[in-house]
Specification:
7-stranded antiparallel sheet; alpha+beta
Length: about 230
């Protein structure tokens, strides 16, 4: 009887630990679908509002790149979200492990609160007739394309005018991306990991020249599962 009691307790303890482990590995929303709580705009003057349970970003004529950034920083993670380009003329992206540079004299004079956003960016681009580079990795303000030129091949996984599901898996120097279930990129960049091991997630509204726009992009169901080192 005593032995059976001990075995029962052991099974219960194991069950609780398993449930706890499972809970910690779940995707958690970082956008509540109602407000922009937990997010801060950095750079640019594009507008970000919540509409129909999604974040709608809209260009402002003459503005540089704008970014709505998570207040929380992430290192290793599994990020999933849906995105739709309202206007195919607009190029966009999602920053990962990103940071801001120190304010330069021009930015200080302009009254900016944050320096230039920089870090890896997952590309969002309309497919159109010839395909596009959606899902590849670009070094925003930190060196340009991280995806090698020989692997930067246009594809048609991104569906214009529709919601597209992205997945970004970042573990150490390896960053993998999928669009609508199709793997687009499997990149290993040890040098970028040294400079950008951890940072915010940022929703980009690309800058547009004077006399163009307004153009919009929208995101919803933004969720993250943090991956902790063993």
């Amino acid at each position: 009887m005593h032995r059976l009691f001990i075995i029962t307790l052991s099974l219960l303890a194991f069950s609780c630990l398993s449930a706890k482990h499972h809970k910690s590995s779940e995707l958690k929303p970082i956008f509540d679908g109602k407000t922009l709580e937990g997010w801060t705009q950095k750079n640019g003057t594009a507008t970000y509002v919540v509409k129909d349970g999604a974040i709608l970003g809209t260009t402002k004529e003459g503005s540089p790149n704008s970014f709505l950034c998570s207040n929380k920083l992430y290192g290793n993670f599994d990020l999933q979200f849906e995105v739709k380009l309202i206007n195919n003329e607009l190029n966009s992206g999602v920053q990962i492990r990103s940071q801001t540079k120190d304010l330069n004299d021009k930015e200080k004079k302009r009254g900016d609160k944050f320096g230039r956003v920089n870090g890896p960016q997952v590309e969002i681009e309309a497919t159109r007739d010839k395909g596009a580079e959606s899902g590849y990795i670009y070094g925003e303000a930190c060196g340009g394309w991280m995806t090698p030129k020989d692997k930067l091949k246009p594809h048609k996984h991104f569906k214009d005018g529709e919601w597209n599901k992205y997945r970004v898996l970042a573990e150490g120097a390896r960053i993998q991306t999928w669009i609508n279930g199709n793997q687009v990129s499997d990149l290993v960049d040890k040098e970028k990991l040294k400079t950008h091991p951890k940072g915010f997630i940022g929703l980009q509204v690309h800058g547009v020249r004077k006399g163009s726009g307004p153009y919009s992009v929208t995101w919803r169901n933004i969720k993250v599962r943090e991956i902790h080192s063993k």
